[in-house]
Amino acid sequence: MEKDKWVLEMQNVSKSFPGVHALKEINFRLLPGKVHVVMGENGAGKSTLMKIIAGIYKADSGKMLLHGEEVKFQTPRQALHRGIAMIHQELSPVLEMTITENLFLGKEITLGKSRLLDEKKMNKSAEELLARVGLEIPPTTRMKNLSVSQMQMVEIAKALSYHSEIIIMDEPTAAITDKEVEKLFQIIRQLKDENRCIVYISHKMKEIFQIADEITVFRDGSYIGTYDADSITEKELIKYMVDRDLSQIYPKRENTITDEVFQLENASQAGFFEDVSFSLRRGEILGIAGLMGAGRTELMNAVFGITKLNAGKISIHNRIVKKPTPNKMIANGLGYVTEDRKGNGLVLEMGVRDNMILASLHDLMNRIGFIKKKKAAELSLNFKERLAIKTPTMEKEAGELSGGNQQKIVLAKWLMQNPEIIIFDEPTRGIDVGAKTEIYKLITALAEQGKSIIFISSEMPEILGMCDRIIVLSGGKISGELNGKEATQEKILSFAGKNV
After folding, report:
1. At what angle do helices 403-415 and 433-448 cross, to 10 degrees?
2. Of the candidates 95, 50, 103, 102, which has an alpha carbon nearest to the alpha carbon of residue 76?
3. Less packed terminus of the chain by CB within 10 Å, N or C?
4. Going by C-beta distance under 8 Å and a sequence separation of 6 or more, which residues neighbour residue 224?
5. Residue 427: helix, strand or coil by DSSP?
6. Nearest in space to 336 (alpha carbons), one of 415, 449, 278
7. What is the DSSP letter of 343?
8. Looking at residue 419, what is its pLDDT?
9. Of the candidates 208, 135, 141, which has an alpha carbon nearest to the alpha carbon of residue 171?
10. What angle do CA 47, 92, 327 make, to 5 degrees?
11. Which residues pair with 313 in a beta bridge?
């Protein structure tokens, strides 16, 4: 197609942040009626370029052309007015507001020329948008009462409400169910038929080859190439992304499994899980599988003492832990890498070092309550190097780093505690294949050192590739248990659907 048919073109776009050259003379273009997937490791520059297109960042140099006309957006609102909408990877809803209020924030419908809101009209429009994304929820529901999955679908509905010509989707399926993914793909195909441009960022290879027309690869802030989706293989794509062979994505395990270190007996929590019992052994990687809503995260929150059990008991080394709290569980040798790294794993406004030492403050304080700065600096630097965390300085705000580096900071925070038992809840969600491989190696090494691991993942290949034993939850109950060597995707899915 001729150049004048391009809807959007980025020419030699560069962008730097303090200590980081995020984009280096990037070229990129979009054609109407196409799904253009953007690939690259965390920190490759994907989200930075999208934020320039959406008016959130300003490029240091280069041009952006919209239908051949150079544009320079000063704000996201200007980009919206020119037909560019973005669905962000990190959700930021106004939790105390209703779904309708969030959908129409900044573009409220009023009664005639008055300033009074036309709530009836907005609720009706909101109902139509929710129906389009397959959500059967009253639009007057407050956002705080929704699951992360439902919030993500509301964010997708919000992007559709702008009727934009270009829709950027940054990790739109990171926290939604398979059924919702199918609905999203149906919506994307409808948008293609309407000749819209879809920019799609994801680390899920299976999705990419289902939906992509074109694929552009970035690496370390540089443009590598654009390829027709039907002319490139998954192996080639990974090689372009990481510039190294990742044939052994899941490392070979040489862990020795010995005695039981943890027991959960007849645990129940009203509305979430019921009569759950399992044990964990030294050196074991125990997988917890199940569909979205099966109760996996809720169970781990209760195990760690974030929420309370209605019934059941927890034992560590055959000693019952009474009335568990996070502090008590940490004292008993537990660490918890939570599913929501930005919500409760990190303090985004704090620096890298300060985030790393959060769980170790008690050990790093002197007798009069001050932090031993030298010890804290040495310890955090050691873990930065050990986990290959990319940051210009240790004072850099965690919120400004890539998802993979943020996840490594959370890991460092807990590894400093040297816990005996570590719970990993979706440890690779939203990070690239290269960073995933590094985390797999780290978890495997911990098991080989005799640590006991609970590994929760929605990605079936991870569960099959990483775990010695697999427990499947369905409807808040254990529906099956499998030896890792004998487990298959079909067996897991059979158990996962039992109580649904």
Report:
1. 10
2. 50
3. N
4. 40, 217, 218, 240, 241
5. coil
6. 415
7. I
8. 92
9. 208
10. 105
11. 265
The yes/no answer on whether domain 2-242 falls in CATH 3.40.50.300 is yes
Residue type, 299: L
**412-442 pLDDT, tens per residue?**
888 888 899 999 998 887 676 777 888 899 8
What pLDDT is recorded for position 15?
Answer: 93
Reported as half-sphere exposure (CB side, CA atoms, 13 A), residue 167 has a value of 28
How many Cα atoms are found within 13 Å in the side-chain-facing hemisphere of 46?
32
Query: Which residue carries 């289902």 as its tokens?
Result: 210
- 241: CB partners within 8 A, 6+ apart: 39, 40, 41, 44, 217, 219, 224, 432, 433, 434
User: Is there a contact between 447 and 382 (Cβ–Cβ < 8 Å)?
Assistant: no
Would you say the CATH fold of 260-496 matches that of 2-242? yes
For residue 241, what pLDDT is reported? Answer: 81
Does the pTM surpass 0.85? The reply is: no
Q: How many CB atoms lie within 10 A of CB 76?
A: 16
pLDDT at position 325: 94
Task: Quote the CA–CA distance of 278 and 259 in Å, as a whole number.
Answer: 14
Q: Tokens for 10, please give them.
A: 């980025």
Q: What is the pLDDT of residue 3?
A: 52
Cβ–Cβ < 8 Å for 157, 103: yes
> Are 3 and 203 contacting, i.e. CB atoms less than 8 angstroms apart?
no
Q: Which residues pair with 223 in a beta bridge?
A: 218
Q: How far is CA 371 from CA 374, 375, 377, 415, in A?
A: 9, 9, 10, 19
Mean pLDDT by 10 residues, the chain (500 residues): 75 85 92 93 83 94 94 92 85 86 86 84 92 90 86 84 89 77 87 92 84 92 92 86 68 91 95 94 95 86 94 95 92 88 80 89 83 89 86 88 83 88 87 79 93 90 91 92 89 76
The CATH number of domain 260-496, selected from 3.60.150.10, 2.40.50.140, 3.40.50.300, 3.90.640.10: 3.40.50.300
* Amino acid 1: pLDDT: 43
Cβ atoms of 411 and 404 within 8 Å: the answer is: no
C-alpha–C-alpha distance, residues 449 and 104, integer Å = 53
| CA 190/CA 176 separation, integer angstroms | 20
Domain chopping of the chain, boundaries: 2-242, 260-496
- Report which DSSP code applies to 432: -
Q: What one-character DSSP code corresponds to residue 344?
A: I
Location of structure tokens 């978890």: 443
